């Protein structure tokens, strides 16, 4: 079966990763590429390493009124740009928005594919979670569902690779600035707080009003590690058992006995989680790693698109992570 797909924002880091994954997808055929300043360039101009059969596809100026025959569109535009840009897309074209504008928005399903896959099956408007929420929510979901932690007192300490800021990430992200440098940012009210609050409250049935989230930029290209501090009297074994039960059928979530490394998931759609708990201190720690461009963006986008189109959720996504 050939499902005709397009990518708007194909020159960006998220769109480029979607292209890389779609190039080997057995059911999705890339027939349309769009953008803004890169319009007129071929995929070979943008990506010298592109598979030759896609090399001559030319990036078109984004125009929702002028789409070719298309079944599904991946949108990977800057957050703030996609709500308006996608509003005019025909109803018969399914949309997977990798950007932030439609998360928990009316008419859109929040695509937390590893936690509620059945809600995504057959849908036509799905919003991908942000990269930090992807790692955080997967790590917390088993604990919240089983009531093992207090939803009101959760502290998320996150580290991200620089590609999380996008190709157009800004002049402050130069090599000289960030090589051998660590810096927290987005203190107190990072843009991902509302979606994480919403998901924690949905999964626990309680309030997440004490949520603290602090991301840090780390001098690596890809990868996110979240270390999450929670209040609860569960043991490490109970947390690991809850996660293993929760993800027993999962293609993409692995539960390890050791703290995970970001490299274990690089280039893949995997999320790896681990837990440590000390009931005598009322302390539960959850750890999770994802590739910000994989599970954090294009990987989960394709997982969601598979579900939207009634395909097996892992189709085109079963490659191994990069190593070393
Ligand atoms: N980088 C990451 O790890 C993650 C990113 N995201 C989200 O994905 C989205 C894309 O991020 P990312 O790929 O990193 O960003 P980039 O800055 O790398 O790319 C942005 C893309 O958007 C395109 N674009 C900008 N304005 C328009 C417009 N008006 N019409 C059409 N296309 C436009 C650009 O096209 P052109 O070059 O042609 O101008 C470019 O391809 C953002 O919402 C981001 O927050 C989500 C999770 C993780
Ligand atoms: C390193 C860096 O800047 N990362 C981005 C997150 C990328 C992402 O998931 O962004 P959206 O929610 O907009 O899709 C940030 O902290 O805002």
Automatic annotation (TrEMBL):
GO terms for biological process: L-arginine biosynthetic process. It catalyses: N-acetyl-L-glutamate 5-semialdehyde + phosphate + NADP(+) = N-acetyl-L-glutamyl 5-phosphate + NADPH + H(+). GO terms for cellular component: cytoplasm. GO terms for molecular function: N-acetyl-gamma-glutamyl-phosphate reductase activity; NAD binding; NADP+ binding. The keyword Transferase does not apply. It holds the Pfam family Semialdhyde_dhC_1. SUPFAM superfamilies: Glyceraldehyde-3-phosphate dehydrogenase-like, C-terminal domain, NAD(P)-binding Rossmann-fold domains. It comes from the Bacteria. Keywords: Amino-acid biosynthesis, Arginine biosynthesis, Cytoplasm, NADP, Oxidoreductase. This is N-acetyl-gamma-glutamyl-phosphate reductase. The active site is at 131. It comes from Jannaschia seohaensis. It is found in: Cytoplasm. The keyword rRNA-binding does not apply. InterPro entries: AGPR, AGPR_dimerisation_dom, AGPR_type-1, NAD(P)-bd_dom_sf, Semialdehyde_DH_NAD-bd. Residues 4-123 form the Semialdehyde dehydrogenase NAD-binding domain. Belongs to the NAGSA dehydrogenase family. Type 1 subfamily. Catalyzes the NADPH-dependent reduction of N-acetyl-5-glutamyl phosphate to yield N-acetyl-L-glutamate 5-semialdehyde. Pathway: Amino-acid biosynthesis; L-arginine biosynthesis; N(2)-acetyl-L-ornithine from L-glutamate: step 3/4. Its EC number is 1.2.1.38. It is an enzyme of class 1 (oxidoreductase). CDD domains: AGPR_1_C.
